[in-house]
Amino acid sequence: xxxxxxxxxxxxxxxxxxxxxxxxxxxxxxxxxxxxxxxxxxxxxxxxxxxxxxxxxxxxxxxxxxxxxxxxxxxxxxxxxxxxxxxxxxxxxxxxxxxxxxxxxxxxxxxxxxxxxxxxxxxxxxxxxxxxxxxxxxxxxxxxxxxxxxxxxxxxxxxxxxxxxxxxxxxxxxxxxxxxxxxxxxxxxxxxxxxxxxxxxxxxxxxxxxxxxxxxxxxxxxxxxxxxxxxxxxxxxxxxxxxxxxxxxxxxxxxxxxxxxxxxxxxxxxxxxxxxxxxxxxxxxxx
Length: 287
Description:
Number of strands: 12
Oligomer: single chain
């Protein structure tokens, strides 16, 4: 009896040791193999396992191993695909993209001329049905509504643009951050109308979070790469220094034109005087 108890304790220790190596409570192929071997080791010699049952268990074990290897390969493939997507997404940096969503951002920075500039993501929307009345609201990161405006007379299929001025309902400037635009619209029957929502912003970076690739926008928000609809090159804003240089060149060009006109006038005047003198000489000779 003591030998049987000792064997059972040994088996129990081996099984617990195999379980302790697992991450979490899931069993891997080694655990199932240990169970199978333990079953063979302590089977009743007077009633051994049937060969058909043994073959069936081995087939199940083989299938389990193949599935686990396939799962590991798929995880590696997914990781490689996500990394490749992130590398490809870096080509979007500096581009203006249109992304499905309703998350806008506000940032304030000092430009090259030392002037403070505020950048706010543009928000566009279109309704699937004619809208009689509705409300557009801007909410902060905590879900608090800081700005609201009424909507009325919106036609279906028409794209409307909301350019927020960055101010709250009380007229004060909202702090820099990420905000959410919410739409509530109704048709003439009082039924809610769905809308298609797009955010336009410039890409400043790429983020890979839990296998999902996001684009970092100039407004500070993160938008999923898979939701990108359009990519364009943003218009370059000329600085005040460039504008001053352009104005200076224009003034210089005008001065040159005036100088040329003055020179031409002087030349014409001199030519007229020479012609008059020549005429007087001819008259004197004739006299």
